[in-house]
Amino acid sequence: MVDLTSWDHAGSRLDLAWSDGRNDTLHAIWLRDNSPSPQARHANGQKLFDITELAEDVAIDAVSNGGGALHIRFAPDGHEAAFDLGWLRDHAAGHPKSSQRLWDASLSDAMPVHHHDAVMSDDAAKAAWLRDIRDLGFVLMKGVPTEQGTLISVAESFGYVRETNYGRYFEVRADPDPINLANTPMGLSCHTDNPYRNPVPGLQLLHCLVSENDGGESIVVDGFRAAALLREESPDDFAVLTRHKVPFRFASADTDLVARARMITLDDRGEVEEVRFNNRSIAAFDLPADIMPEFYRAYRAFARVLQRSDLEVGFKAGPGDLFIVDNQRVLHGRKAVGGSGRRHLQGCYADKDSLMSTLRVLERTA
Questions:
Q1: Stretch 171-175: mean pLDDT, rounded?
Q2: Among 49, 87, 124, 183, which is disulfide-ready with 175 (CB 3.0 to 4.6 Å)?
């Protein structure tokens, strides 16, 4: 257990020293803004004041430690608040360290597999399933009943279905007049789904109902791992793809969806937060003429990384198998479907915020 060993306040800041040697600095305005006092925060957790109501010269007037909390009196308004020491330590560290685990083809030997009945009946099993989705961006579930529409109940076990022009769920099987190449026997290179939407669906679920054919093996690739390799091996190409947006488009008789996005998007810390890659749905690039050659060079370089066999995890989904991919990270595809046997999958989309919410509640009540 880590204890607070000393503290020092000098008006606009508070310096904390912990027993493990860590030191933190917290500003008075941040502490006042995050006061847990009933005068500052409703029982439901929402703030009762606006930032403009706080004095611009907020300062720390007095500090004492007791009962597992740091008691602070502020000037000039005399407001008092007790900050839980554990809360202070967690939040003083800044942005939490990511739990993401990058992977390559070696994941085939340790593929995360969860079982439907356990996940649906046991909170600990459900939390483990959701953590794998969060950390790896890809999880296989087995033993899912093969009744049509069952994947909806799986999605609703952690959140809400993202309905699109394809409906609440959609069929993946050969169609004599397909509006999407997914409904042909063709092999599909690895891609993220629906890049022409804004926002793009955060999760995709695919549930195998029938698999009587040859081929059709599923392939998944960690787009964040591929982006990291591109950044390491070809930083100029990586920079080009993070700098320029390009259009993606899907058009049918009753739908025309267009979104401009970067193939690799970085967050405010320079870390990859989204990969959007779909060769079938890229529209004509609308970049300036002097940018076009270097963009195509970078686009080709990233595609080659994504096609490396040592990044691919392949598996043959059988009846009752359902897999989930983080559609902003993990690319999925399939080998060509052969033979005359039937192959029928159903798919749907969901958003990650509901999954993360469910996981936090499960971990909070564990």
A1: 72
A2: 183
CA 197 remoteness from chain centre: 16
CATH number at residue 241: 3.60.130.10
Look at the pTM and tell me if it is higher than 0.85.
yes
Whether 246 and 355 share a structural domain = yes
Q: Supply angle C-alpha 141, 344, 356, rounded to 5.
A: 35
Greater confidence, 176 or 75? Answer: 75
What letter does residue 47 receive in the DSSP assignment?
B
Element at 274 (helix H, strand E): strand 272-275
- Is the per-residue pLDDT at 291 higher than 80? yes
Which residue range(s) make up the domain with 220?
105-365
Structure tokens at 345: 């999958």
Residues 6+ apart with CB under 8 A from 262: 241, 242, 243, 244, 245, 246, 274, 276
Q: What is the pLDDT of residues 314-340, one digit of tens each?
A: 999 999 999 999 999 999 998 776 656
Do 87 and 126 have their domain in common?
no
Residue 219 lies in a domain: yes
Last residue of a domain, one of 92, 126, 153: 92
Decide: 128 and 159 in contact? Cβ < 8 Å: no
Q: How far apart are CA 245 and CA 339, in angstroms?
A: 40
State phi, psi for 121 to the nearest 5 degrees.
-120, -10
